[in-house]
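Dear support,

I submitted the protein below through the web form. The confirmation email said the job was done, but the results page showed an empty box. After a refresh the structure appeared. I'm attaching both so you can tell me whether what I see now is the final result or a partial one.
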Amino acid sequence: MALNHFPNNSGLASSMQSFIQMLLFALLSGLVAPLLFDSALNLAYGVMAGLLVSLICWVFAQG
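What the results page shows now:
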């Protein structure tokens, strides 16, 4: 849906979307994941926090 806003530059928009997604994943993997590797409980809390953040973002995107 986001790429439909740029029909003439869909390749550029797709590339930028992929770059931003990869950048966010690299930051989370490099900064947040090492903090959670101490125990399985911390990893579970991290997954739960990610799920809640995703749900909140989805709710705001719908409304």
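Response: this is the final, complete result; the empty box was a page-load delay. Residues 35 and 51 are 17 Å apart (CA to CA).
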